[in-house]
Design goal:
Layout: H1 2-53, H2 62-83, H3 87-118, H4 123-139, H5 146-152, H6 158-186, H7 196-199, H8 203-211, H9 214-227, H10 231-263, H11 270-304, H12 308-348, H13 354-379, H14 384-401, H15 403-418, E1 426-429, E2 432-439, E3 443-447, E4 453-457, H16 458-462, E5 466-468, E6 476-484, H17 490-505, H18 529-533, E7 540-546, E8 551-559, H19 564-584
Antiparallel strand pairs: 1-2, 1-5, 2-3, 3-4, 6-8, 7-8
Helix pairs in contact: 1-6, 2-3, 3-4, 3-6, 4-6, 8-10, 10-11, 11-12, 12-13, 17-19
C-alpha cells in the first residue's frame, strides 16, 4: 500500500515537470523560429541596402509600369465581379490589389532614396520619404480583411483558398516592408554618408537660427500655423533672390566671355571680334539670366513648400523650363550665327539663295520645339511610343471618313503657317471682302462692310489670292494728278512742283526718309524688313505729262498712319495746302475745256 502511494505521489510530481518541459520546448522552438525569421528579414534588408548603393532600382524603373498594368487589370476584374455579386472574388482581388500597390509604393520609395542620394538631400528629407511609406502601410493595414479571413479560412473552394493565400502574403509583405523601412530609417548612414554642411550647417540651420530669436519666434509661430511658412524661411528666400540678382551679371559676363574666347579665332579682326561678341551676348545672355532666376525660384520653392508630392509635381515643369531656355539660347545662337555669316556664304557661293537659309532656320526652330515638347511629355510620364502608334493606326480610318474636314483642317494650318491674315484684318479673297472675325479649325468667318457674316472653308482661302489691307505698319497711299493750265508759265509750274515736294517732305503726317528711319536688327535678312512689315515712305512729285487741257503734276506719297479715317484727314490737309501753293505760284487749276481758233 505504501508502494502504491509512493508511485502515486511520484507520478503527480513528474507530470507538471513533464508538461513544463514540453511547454519550454515549444517556447524554445518559437523563439528559434522568431530568430530565424528576423535573420531572414535582416538578410533581405541588407540586400535592399546593397541594391540602393548600386542604384539597382533605377535600372528596373520599367517594373513600375508592369505594376500599373497589373493594377489596372485587377481594377477591371473587381468591377466585373461586383456587377456579378461575386463578393469572395472581389475580396480576393482587393487584397491582391493592395499587395501590388504596396509593392509599387515601396519600390518608388527606394527609387526616391536613390535620387535623393544623387541630388545630395539632407537627412531629414530621407526620413520624411521613409516615414511617409511607413504611415501608408499602417493605414492600408490587413486588419480590415481579418473578419472576412476568419470566414473564408474554413471554406474549401478555389477562390477562398486564393484569398487566404493572398491574406498571408499581405501579412508577410507588411511585416517585411515595415521591418526594412524602420531599419532604413534608423540606419540612414548605411546608404548615405553623413555630411555636416548638408545636414546641420545648411539653409534649415539658418532658418531655425532666425526663428529662434526672441522678437521673431512668436511671429514665426503665427505665420507657420496660418501661412504654412516661417519668418526665417521668408528671410532666407529674400536673401537667395537678392544673391542671385547681384550675382547674375557677374556670372553671365563670365560665361559669355568664356564662350566668346572659345568661339573667337586668333586671326579675327577687331571688327569681326566685336561682331561676334555682340551677337553671342544677344543670343545667350537673356536665356542664361532667366535660367538663374528659375534656379533661385526652385530653391525658394524647396524652402517654402514642405509637401514632397507638390514638389515632385512642380519639378518636371521647372526641368522643362530649363530645357526650353537652353533651346532658346541654342536657337538664338544658330540664328544669329547664320545671320552674321550668311552674306559671306552668298558671296562665296553665288547659287545659294537667301530663302533657303531662312527655310533652314525655320526647320531648326521646328526641330528644337519638337524636342522640347517630347521632353515635356517624358517628364509628365506620357508614353510617346503609344501616342505615335495610336496616330498611325487611326490615321487611315480618320482620313477616309473625313476627307473634306481634313482638307479644311490642313488649309487652316496652311493659313496659320503662312500668316496670310489674322483675326481683325481687312482682307479681300475673290468676291469676298471684309474683316476677319474668327479663324476656326475648318472655316474662317468674315464680316462684310454691309454687316453680313460670310463663312468660307479654309481650303478655299488657302488656295486663293488674298489681298490683306491690314498687313502694313506705316503708309497709306495718296496718289493724284494735279492739272495746271497751259496759260501758266513753265517756271511757275516748276516752282509749284518744288514747293509741293517741300511741303510733303516736311509734313509731320507724311511718311518720308526724315521721320521714318530704317531699323536694322540684323546684318543679313532674306527679305527687306520694310516690305515684310509694310512700311512705305516713297515721296514722288514730278511734272508728268501734257494732257488734253492741262500740264499734269504727279503727286505720289504715303501717310504715316495706315488708318482710313486718319488717311482722309491728312489727305484733306494736303489738298488744302496744295491749293494755297497753286495760288502762291500764280498758277491755275485746269479743267476740261476746248479752245477754238478761227482762221482768217
Amino acid at each position: 500500500m505504501q508502494k502504491i502511494n509512493f508511485f502515486k505521489y511520484l507520478i503527480i510530481f513528474l507530470i507538471p515537470i513533464f508538461l513544463f518541459s514540453q511547454e519550454l520546448e515549444k517556447t524554445n522552438q518559437t523563439t528559434k523560429s522568431i530568430d530565424e525569421h528576423l535573420k531572414e528579414q535582416m538578410l533581405i534588408t541588407e540586400d535592399i541596402i546593397e541594391k540602393i548603393n548600386n542604384e539597382y532600382y533605377l535600372k528596373n524603373e520599367d517594373k513600375i509600369k508592369d505594376y500599373n498594368k497589373d493594377i489596372e487589370y485587377l481594377l477591371n476584374r473587381i468591377n466585373i465581379n461586383k456587377r456579378n455579386n461575386n463578393f469572395s472574388a472581389v475580396k480576393r482581388d482587393e487584397i491582391k490589389l493592395l499587395i501590388l500597390e504596396e509593392k509599387r509604393t515601396f519600390e518608388n520609395t527606394l527609387i526616391d532614396i536613390i535620387y535623393a542620394k544623387k541630388s545630395l538631400k539632407d537627412k531629414k528629407f530621407f526620413e520624411n520619404i521613409i516615414s511617409n511609406n511607413i504611415k501608408l502601410i499602417k493605414i492600408n493595414s490587413s486588419k480590415k480583411f481579418a473578419p472576412f479571413y476568419n470566414k473564408e479560412i474554413h471554406k474549401n473552394n478555389k477562390v477562398s483558398k486564393e484569398f487566404v493565400t493572398n491574406y498571408k502574403n499581405l501579412l508577410e509583405q507588411n511585416s517585411q516592408q515595415l521591418f526594412t523601412l524602420q531599419y532604413l530609417q534608423n540606419n540612414i548612414n548605411k546608404f548615405r554618408k553623413t555630411n555636416f554642411f548638408i545636414d546641420k550647417f545648411n539653409i534649415q540651420y539658418f532658418v531655425n537660427l532666425i526663428d529662434s530669436q526672441k522678437n521673431i519666434s512668436s511671429i514665426s509661430e503665427f505665420t507657420t500655423y496660418n501661412l504654412k511658412f516661417s519668418v526665417g524661411e521668408i528671410v532666407i528666400v529674400f536673401f537667395i533672390l537678392l544673391f542671385f540678382r547681384l550675382l547674375n551679371t557677374k556670372i553671365i559676363n563670365f560665361i559669355t566671355n568664356f564662350i566668346i574666347n572659345v568661339y573667337s579665332k586668333k586671326n579675327d579682326l577687331d571688327e569681326d571680334k566685336n561682331t561676334r561678341i555682340r551677337f553671342i551676348k544677344k543670343s545667350i545672355q537673356r536665356p542664361l539670366i532667366l535660367a538663374l532666376y528659375v534656379l533661385a525660384i526652385k530653391i525658394s520653392l524647396y524652402i517654402l513648400i514642405k509637401d514632397t508630392e507638390i514638389i515632385n509635381k512642380i519639378v518636371p515643369w521647372i526641368n522643362t523650363l530649363y530645357v526650353g531656355l537652353f533651346t532658346w539660347g541654342i536657337y538664338s545662337l544658330i540664328t544669329n550665327s547664320i545671320s552674321n555669316y550668311a552674306q559671306h556664304l552668298i558671296v562665296k557661293y553665288p547659287n545659294l539663295r537667301k530663302e533657303m537659309i531662312v527655310f533652314i532656320l525655320r526647320i531648326i526652330k521646328i526641330i528644337l520645339i519638337l524636342l522640347v515638347i517630347l521632353f515635356l511629355f517624358s517628364q509628365l510620364g506620357i508614353d510617346i511610343k503609344a501616342i505615335a502608334a495610336s496616330l498611325g493606326v487611326g490615321g487611315i480610318a480618320i482620313a477616309l471618313a473625313s476627307k473634306d474636314t481634313l482638307t479644311n483642317f490642313f488649309g487652316s494650318l496652311s493659313i496659320m503657317a503662312d500668316n496670310s491674315f489674322s483675326q481683325g484684318d481687312w482682307i479681300q479673297a475673290g468676291s469676298v471682302e471684309g474683316t476677319v472675325v474668327d479663324i476656326r479649325m475648318r472655316t474662317t468667318r468674315i464680316r462684310t462692310f454691309d454687316n453680313a457674316m460670310i463663312t468660307v472653308p479654309n481650303s478655299e482661302l488657302a488656295n486663293s489670292n488674298i489681298k490683306n489691307y491690314s498687313k502694313r505698319k506705316i503708309g497709306r497711299r495718296i496718289k493724284m494728278k494735279l492739272g495746271i493750265t497751259y496759260e501758266s508759265s513753265m517756271s511757275d509750274i516748276k516752282n509749284l512742283k518744288n514747293d509741293i515736294y517741300e511741303m510733303l517732305n516736311n509734313h509731320p503726317h507724311i511718311a518720308t526718309q526724315k521721320n521714318i528711319s530704317e531699323n536694322k536688327s540684323k546684318e543679313f535678312e532674306a527679305i527687306k524688313k520694310e516690305d515684310l512689315l509694310g512700311v512705305k515712305r516713297t515721296l514722288l512729285v514730278y511734272i508728268d505729262e501734257y494732257d488734253n487741257s492741262s500740264i499734269n503734276i504727279l503727286i505720289y506719297c504715303f501717310t504715316r498712319s495706315p488708318g482710313w479715317e486718319d488717311w482722309l484727314t491728312i489727305k484733306e490737309d494736303v489738298l488744302i495746302k496744295i491749293n494755297e501753293l497753286v495760288i502762291k505760284n500764280n498758277c491755275d487749276f485746269a479743267y476740261p475745256s476746248q479752245t477754238v481758233f478761227l482762221k482768217k
